[in-house]
Specification:
- This protein has 636 residues and is mainly α.
- It folds into 2 domains: 34-57 and 113-287, Serine Threonine Protein Phosphatase 5, Tetratricopeptide repeat, CATH 1.25.40; 288-635, Serine Threonine Protein Phosphatase 5, Tetratricopeptide repeat, CATH 1.25.40.
- Helix content is 38%, strand content 6%.
- The strands form 6 sheets. A two-stranded antiparallel sheet has the order 1-10. The chain has a two-stranded antiparallel ribbon with strand order 2-3. It has a two-stranded antiparallel sheet with strand order 4-7.
- The longest helix is centred in the N-terminal third of the chain and has 26 residues, at 137-162.
Length: 636
């Protein structure tokens, strides 16, 4: 009876996936019993991939709050057409509620996936895998390890959203008493510790890397598990979870406290050790920071464009040719058309090929450093007060800004990552089918008569900035859109370096090793080291010499390096900084104006709404009625 019940539950809850690799998105057909589902290796492998199926749904950035609430992208909510699920973007407009939560990963509604169902699937696999008689011990050990990773990751994802969540270590028997079915929240430290325990059990039996890429790319490796373990521990050590006074009173109905009341600095030591172990494993297996290598189709490149393509291609390079990529999902990034401006007359006619509606606010472009490697408002050689004054590009700027084009001071003299990440009015857009750098396209965004300017309510960019990093330079938008697909990284080596630097700084403050790992990332971006840059160019030259100052620098480095990669929203939450970031209006330019003097005037396009209660999701009111052992998230 127990087995039949579980099978019926499974069949009813399996979701269809969007993976480009069918082997990671399989639902068994005509399955009558669990004995059949695990009767042999082939059927058991199919069931393994049903455990992966939910993971493949994480590819959609519109359901990832690390992307939609990062302050990096504004998506207009007044479009006539609704091509995207807007729930995630509307969260920073104050749309969250407990009656019908947006991006609900608890129940699988409004853009979220039902992760508790996924956990039940994982448990069914672990309970029944021994029934596959022709499975070799090595295969069984690996598959069990993969499912343990998935269990850990699904719990971790829930914890980042909801804080304390129930631990689904085993499935509840159908004959269990009602009270056993009504699970309660576990303390956040218990959740993190259980996730790490699962990863520690899994890591020895996972392959270091995928060798059979044609058949297995996308499956979990040791490097994936080691790196995610480091991220988990850094999240547990961060202020949102580590002695957070805002949730000190949150407890279960039996009085059990759900958050630690005192910050434990040793959690940062665990995170640092885990990050170093992950880095060492990556190095031993040949991973390194990506550098662009020109294909035969690309002609001579200036130093500026080559450096820019190195940064842009850390994300958009082919999976099997990117030595920096630690983990990505099989489905490709689905929103290139939202990040690409119109560059040609034919694209302006075919406006419905690409909505171009992912708009970057002025605050995000100002996040990036000057060419001197310090913030624009700290650089003593940068005229910050006149950053919006008009300036015309000359010959020295022609590979970054169109020669003779008038834009603003703030678009000149910026670091490489600025030009690789963001397209703006007058910016060079290398690629799009043209690989002669002297004939490269540039963005024209002023007024509705310009190529990239607003044409109608559905194909406009409301700030005048595009997230260029999310478009492959080989994709072509002309007479229609021909995208060259890529996989958005979930973890890459530069992010792991900065995670290690962050944890080390929290453990012991600035050291040579902390500087080294930050500077490795900065050097790839063409910048001098942190200490040299601040001492030479900053109005605050001693900032990197204190733990607090270096913490601020590391946080900014992560936001710059991982911009648009669905990481910053999670980081800002765990640091308890997102409320500050979203406390100011989000601005763009006057996109309907054609004259530079009128266009380049900051215009508020959205005022975010984010309060203390928005750090964690509410549980749906109905769920609290069904299970009276659950307590609502504090402030909801």
């Amino acid at each position: 009876m127990k087995q039949y019940y579980k099978l019926l539950l499974l069949v009813g809850l399996l979701i269809s996936g969007a993976s480009c690799k069918k082997y990671l998105d399989v639902t068994p057909d005509n399955t009558g019993t669990l004995e059949y589902a695990f009767r042999n290796r082939n059927e058991a492998e199919n069931y393994l991939f049903t455990c992966y199926a939910t993971l493949q749904q994480f590819y959609d950035p519109t359901s990832n709050v690390g992307f939609t609430t990062s302050s990096e992208i504004i998506y207009p909510n007044n479009l006539t057409n609704k091509p995207l699920n807007e729930n995630g973007f509307n969260l920073i407009r104050g749309a969250q509620n407990s009656s019908n939560p947006g991006v609900n990963w608890w129940d699988g509604e409004n853009g979220g996936q039902a992760l508790f169902r996924s956990l039940r699937r994982c448990n069914i696999f672990l309970e029944n895998i021994d029934k596959a008689f022709d499975l070799t011990p090595a295969e069984k050990a690996r598959w069990v390890a993969e499912v343990k990773f998935l269990k850990a990751y699904y719990h971790y994802y829930l914890c980042r959203l909801y804080g304390p969540v129930p631990l689904i270590k085993t499935n509840v028997d159908i004959s269990a008493a009602t009270e056993e079915v009504r699970v309660k929240r576990a303390p956040v430290d218990s959740v993190f510790n259980y996730c790490v325990q699962l990863l520690d059990e899994a890591i020895p039996n996972l392959p270091p890397v995928i060798t059979n890429q044609a058949k297995e790319l996308g499956r979990i490796t040791q490097l994936t598990a080691l790196s995610i373990k480091a991220e988990m521990l850094a999240t547990q050590a961060s202020p949102l979870f580590n002695g957070n006074p805002d949730y000190a009173s949150m407890k279960n109905k039996d009085g059990q406290l759900l958050f630690s009341t005192i910050a434990d600095p040793q959690k940062w030591k665990r995170a640092a050790d885990a990050a170093k172990a992950a880095i060492d494993a990556c190095t031993a297996n040949g991973l390194k920071l990506y550098t662009f290598v020109s294909p035969p189709t690309v002609g001579t490149l200036s130093d500026e464009l080559r450096a820019e393509l190195t940064i842009q291609n850390t994300v958009t390079e082919k999976w099997d040719q990117n030595p920096e990529l630690i983990w990505a999902l099989n489905p490709t990034f689905p929103c290139q058309g939202y990040a690409t401006p119109r560059l040609t007359p034919k694209s302006a006619v075919n406006i419905f090929s690409n909505p171009s509606t992912f708009a970057v606010p002025i605050s995000t472009q100002e996040l990036f450093y000057t060419a001197n490697g310090v913030p624009v408002n700290e650089d003593k050689n940068f005229d910050y007060a006149n950053r919006y004054a008009l300036k015309t590009a000359g010959d020295a700027d022609k590979y970054l800004i169109a020669k003779g084009y008038t834009t603003i001071n703030e678009h000149f003299g910026r670091e490489t990552r600025f030009y690789a990440n963001i397209a703006f009015d007058g910016a060079i857009w290398y690629g799009n089918g043209i690989y002669n750098q002297d004939q490269a396209y540039h963005v024209e965004a002023r007024g509705n008569t310009s190529l990239a300017g607003p044409k109608d309510r559905n194909t406009l960019n409301i700030t005048g900035y595009w997230p260029k990093k999310l478009a492959n330079y080989l994709s072509v938008y002309d007479d229609g859109f021909q995208p060259i697909e890529f996989h958005l990284p979930l973890m890459r080596l530069a992010g792991l370096y900065l995670l290690y630097a962050e944890a080390l700084n929290e453990v012991g403050g600035p050291t040579a090793e902390v500087y080294d790992y930050i500077d490795r990332v900065r050097a790839r971006a063409g910048l001098k080291g942190v200490v040299e840059s601040w001492s030479t160019y900053s109005k605050n030259p001693n900032k990197p010499t204190s733990k607090e100052g270096l913490r601020d620098i590391i946080h900014r480095e992560r936001r710059i390096e991982l911009c648009f990669e669905a990481q910053s929203g999670w980081d800002l939450r765990r640091w308890k900084e997102i409320q500050q970031v979203l406390s100011v209006p989000m601005q763009g330019w006057n996109i309907y104006e054609t004259e530079p003097g009128n266009y380049y005037r900051p215009n508020t396009v959205m005022t975010p709404v984010f309060g203390l209660r928005n750090y964690f999701w509410p549980i749906k009111d109905y769920d609290l009625t069904v299970n009276n052992n659950l307590v609502q998230t504090t402030y909801w």
